[in-house]
Specification:
Structural class: alpha+beta
Order of helices and strands: HHEEH
Distance between the termini: 32 Å
Number of strands: 2
Protein name: LapA family protein
Low-confidence stretches: none
Keywords: Membrane, Transmembrane, Transmembrane helix
Strand order of the largest sheet: 1-2
Radius of gyration: 19 Å
Helix content: over 70%
Largest sheet: 2 strands, antiparallel
Number of domains: 2
Length: 82
């Protein structure tokens, strides 16, 4: 019995979406390391000079947060329909 539980856990760990997510994270990290020079960033009326890797990292974190928040809303709507 425990073997099937372990196999199911291992199989779900190696799901295609997990591999795609892992590859994307590695690609973003490589992109961040390669773009280490400073860049002028303008948001509304504020201009700052930051390392490009830091700006990419901030956008990545904000994107994950937005995706997490919107996914939670979608899950609630799906549950309420049932």
């Amino acid at each position: 019995m425990s073997e099937s539980g372990e196999a199911g856990g291992f199989k779900s760990l190696l799901a295609t979406t997990n591999w795609i997510a892992l590859v994307l994270v590695v690609l973003v990290i490589v992109f961040m390391v390669q773009n280490s020079h400073d860049a002028n960033l303008t948001f509304l009326w504020v201009t700052v000079r930051w390392p490009l890797w830091l700006a990419i990292g901030i956008v990545l974190v904000l994107s994950f947060a937005a995706g997490f928040l919107f996914r939670g809303r979608r899950d609630k709507r799906r549950r309420s329909r049932r």
